[in-house]
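Before relying on records like the one below, remember that each one covers exactly one chain. Contacts with other chains, cofactors or solvent are not represented anywhere in the record.
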Amino acid sequence: MSSSPTDASIVAVSMPQMGISVAEGTILEWRKRPGDWVEADETICDVSTDKVDVEIPSPASGRLERILVEPGETVSVGTPLAEVDTAAAPGEAHPEESPEAHRAEPPEVDRSRFYSPVVRRVAEEHGIDLEQVEGTGVGGRVRKVDLMHFLENGAAKKERGEPEVREERPLHTESPYQGEPQPAASAEDLIGPTRRERMSPMREQIARHMLDSRRNSAHCTTIVEVDFSRVADQRQDLRETMARRGVNLTYLAFVAREAVAALERHPVLNASLDGEEIVYHDQVNLGIAVALENGLIVPVIRQAERLSLEGLAAAIGDLATRAREKRLHPDEVQGGTFTITNPGQFGAVLATPIINQPQVAILDLEAIVKRAVVVERDGDEAIAIRPMSYLCMSWDHRALDGAEAARFLAEMRTGLEEGGSA
């Protein structure tokens, strides 16, 4: 006969911390159901954040007693997701499956008044009494989708006693061409057929992160033009040798190398903001933005200053591959001190990227294209065709000024145009 779980035998499965800028995560799927046996470190559910999709392991062996957060719900770091009964034995029947359970069903737990941190935050922002919101979750729990439906239907305005505002639409408008009344077209008629899709959890997280960055940082962008002729020559000389060692030598690796070197000379850009303090980092943890099918992720190359050109190229290729295959570890998407993004690979020629908080700058590599430029030859000026690109850097005016940003980019340009060292 199975025994009732005690408080001492119950272990909580909580939303883990997955980076200093990750405050919450969304449950994608439960791999186990209540009553299932789980081993310690066995995957129990999948969680999505704006950084990465991760598998959450069970902290202990036992029987999954309860699931507290449903798929699709977003909760803060540290929120209990489920409970595991460590006093249970493998193969032991769950109380709900025992004969006693069929004879006397325990009363259903009323979780309708349990509110996730996200639900409470939205309700506070809009002044909503959650007691008035009908929940569709387990046990009648109010989910975020219920709250948004409540807001969209205008029930919140009625609750606060605000008058309902109805748009007055004229029945007819005069046609300037025919001089006779015509039915007024609705916005839907003018736009044509549409379809609506809810944002994915990753898209929602990215949206919040980018909006927070725009609100919190004093964004400025500085741009320099770079002649990549010598980089192209050097890449041509080294590419085949590195390919035999399994390394794809890209232009991005050259830019990363020069960025790391310049960051060591300009530590104000290898920094982050914490309230009214600027935190200067001793090592360069270089974030490389990777485009996914449904979003963006920024894996981090730790201590990039220790890597050669080939080491950087290998690290960039490895992280990008594993990011697209969703094989990154949580610690590989946190702790970055400076970020490089590369929309140029898709043909973009100019951009103003948004800073990846809490960093103070982000560098953007645009497409390298052949253009006619003026060059000096033996003291004379001439027109030549050169592979050219723009380096665009957005930076936080709270932490530095335009002169420092311009000096940083000028040094990068010099390093790239002079070829650098392998």
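The longest helix spans residues 201-216.
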